[in-house]
Amino acid sequence: MSTHEITYLKMKTRQQQKSLEGYVGFASLPNQVYRKSVKRGFEFTLMVVGESGLGKSTLINSLVLTDLYCGEYPGPSHRIKKTVQVEQSKVLMKEGGVQLLLTIVDTPGFGDAVDNSNCWQPVIDHIDSKFEDYLNAESRVNRRQMPDSRVHCCLYFIAPSGHGLKPLDIEFMKRLHEKVNIIPLIAKADTLTPEECQQFKKQIMREILEHKIKIYEFPETDDEEENKIVKTIKDRLPLAVVGSNTIIEVNSKRVRGRQYPWGVAEVENGEHCDFTLLRNMLIRTHMQDLKDVTNNVHYENYRSRKLAAVTCNGIDNNKTKGQLTKSPLAQMEEERREHVSKMKKMEMEMEQVFEMKVKEKIQKLKDSEAELQRRHEQMKKNLEAQHKELEERRRQFEEERVNWETQQRILEQQKMTLEKNKKKGKIF
Amino acid sequence: MAATDVDIFSNEEKRNLNLGGHVGFDSLPDQLVSKSVTQGFCFNILCVGETGIGKSTLMNTLFNTMFENEEASHYQNGVYLRPRTYDLQESNVHLKLTIVDTVGFGDQINKEESYKPIVDYIDTQFENYLQEELKIKRSLFNYHDTRIHICLYFIAPTGHSLKSLDLVTMKKLDSKVNIIPIIAKADTISKSELHKFKIKIMSELVSNGVQIYQFPTDDEAVTEINSSMNAHLPFAVVGSVEEVKVGNKTVRARQYPWGVVQVENESHCDFVKLREMLIRVNMEDLREQTHARHYELYRRCKLEEMGFKDTDPDSQPFSLQETYEAKRKEFLGDLQRKEEEMRQMFVNKVKETEAELKEKERELHEKFEQLKRMHQEEKRKVEEKRRDLEEEMNAFNKRKVAAETLSLSQPLKKDKDRK
């Protein structure tokens, strides 16, 4: 026994509530986190999808209160290509000491062709390739701070027909709702009266429910105030938005709006459209949550599907359930162990069969030997019997001969005596 | 080479945009903070030091609470680590605090292996995190992070220099965890001795290449305070949970006949500095360093051990899929090979045994052939004898017949003679 014993106590997580007497100071942790995050800077990737002419670029400009899309950097509707492209532009913005790298991904050509089958495929491919990049970066041996270029939010623009969703809308959302946070928007909402808008929204939500499309869900919080706002937004989904690149003076206020002969539709007026709700939700309150859901849900789905395919080769779906709680390597370890035990069993079986066959053969050999031995014994016995018989005959023969010879001799003797007598005395 | 130092904006083509108004993303840090607060924070402290040096007392003092702790005996067989987790709350901030105590450290006669349980414990926590990170279905965001964020190394207040156990242990730990060395029970050292002691300790650490945690100086908000604190290392601390009345205030202190050592008096000891640095200023940085530097180092070594590489022989970067697929192919090939080997071995065994048995069979047949031959020989002899006998019998019979015919003619004469 060595002089030391390395013993571990199992992690006794006796979690106890402790009340602190006096100020310790870790309540400053949030501040520390704040400082570090500001120093690091933020990034966000926003995707805008919709047919051309729905006001996507204008909306983006309105959101960031500046001409992101302008003459020099035209929006998607001005860049229509023969096939659907997925293009991104990055802008760096600073506000209040906070730096944000905003990547806008747009899809010029989406839905504009006569045959729009599979026009969503480039979008899916783009999202997947960003996930793939992140997965590879995360899985490297030497990791560095990874830029997060995954798509965090997709604004889907619905044409303001007033009736319902188009088949393309449904198809697109169905294919992408498990890859990205989808926020559907009713574009150019200033063509709908409030009642028409209400109807339209109800119809859209009905269809979304019917097709089991999972759009981005605003999370509930513990805060009463916030929950009220969340409820407001939920009731007004999908948000109907209006965008504008021009600033107009209304009642001596300078507002963004669209000037019509019959009045001005103000972008930031809550009674005119839901733009303010969108901006508040997207940028001011839920930007972080959109990133979190992308990271914790969409990305993890992608990752686990990818790794499961690698490990199990996608063959046996019944096995995969229990295996997903391990890493692919642990998976292989387990398979190796299984294989080893299977081989052991096989070895034992083969061993058994082998032994049995050997035993059989040896038994046969023994039987053969016994048989031969028996036959040999038999023959020996025969021979001995013959021998004996012969001996007996000879003995008999000898006896007979001896007898006969003795007899002959006696007869001879007799004869000789008779002869002698004859010769000696006359027979009277 | 901290991972956080790399500018994430560097290699992208981007343009600067001047905003025409208040967009509102300056609330992003607040959003992030509010999410972290909801999630709660967790912090893990490892206290390394001899029995009785004041580890538990210091923890109680730091966190202003009485954590349960039995006094450890000096007669432990080895060093073992005792982690305890507590849920603390201050205003709206929840902290899951884990304090890991090293029981029995420095008590054995042979202390050569004393550092091992500590290193093993730290590695185990890294390993657990790594395993979670590698799982196919994982949930990192609600994983209870048990990795050690800070190791407080308690130096005995001898006043001279570091013990060799201290140097050995710290050297083994400095690449795995953030170390802050502290001089325990500092109320036994006078001011002048303390100054010399601190200088001696720091120079010994430097000359032995021990990397201790440096308070970060890259954030303007805390550069000044951090760099000044860096100069006061190692902190000389005194811990106490007893309260003593000094003047008209009640403070935590140790009462001696010759005076009262006030824990929170900066001219008496560096406790306030330690608390400031550890908790109020750099807690988040400690967590970050642990994750971005120490954990990454562990992970890198582990993956390299397992045979993962970032680039293949042609210096093309591997994709994760390729890596796993390659490993899987190798693995399956390996299994197949083993199977083949086993089969082959059996085939050989069967052949051998067959040959053996055939040999035996042959021998058996030979033996019986021989016996058969012998038997044939015997039979022949018997036959011969039989023939001989037959001959003799024939000869005898002939004699007999001859004698009989002779005797048949004779008796007539005899009869004649008799008349």
UniProtKB/TrEMBL annotation, chain A:
UniProt keyword annotations, A-Z: Cell cycle, Cell division, Cell projection, Centromere, Chromosome, Cilium, Coiled coil, Cytoplasm, Cytoskeleton, GTP-binding, Kinetochore, Mitosis, Nucleotide-binding
Domain Septin-type G: 40-309
CC per GO annotation: axoneme; cleavage furrow; kinetochore; midbody; septin complex; spindle
Gene3D superfamilies: P-loop containing nucleotide triphosphate hydrolases (3.40.50.300)
GO BP annotation list: cell division
GO MF annotation: an example: GTP binding
Alphabetical list of CDD domains matching this protein: CDC_Septin (cd01850)
Superkingdom classification of source: Eukaryota
InterPro entries: G_SEPTIN_dom, P-loop_NTPase, Septin, Septin7
Transmembrane residue ranges: none
Coiled coil: 329-421
Compartments, record wording: Chromosome, Centromere, Kinetochore; Cleavage furrow; Cytoplasm, Cytoskeleton, Cilium axoneme; Cytoplasm, Cytoskeleton, Spindle
Similarity-based family: Belongs to the TRAFAC class TrmE-Era-EngA-EngB-Septin-like GTPase superfamily. Septin GTPase family.
Name of the protein described by the UniProt record: Septin
Origin species: Triplophysa rosa
TrEMBL record, chain B:
Residue ranges occupied by any Septin-type G domain in the UniProt entry: 39-305
Region ranges (Disordered): 395-419
CDD domains, per the entry: CDC_Septin (cd01850)
One term of GO molecular function: GTP binding
Entry keyword Chaperone: no
Keywords: GTP-binding, Nucleotide-binding
InterPro entries listed in its UniProt record: G_SEPTIN_dom, P-loop_NTPase, Septin
Domain of life where this protein originates: Eukaryota
Listed PANTHER family: SEPTIN
UniProt family annotation: Belongs to the TRAFAC class TrmE-Era-EngA-EngB-Septin-like GTPase superfamily. Septin GTPase family.
Name of the protein in question: Sept8a protein
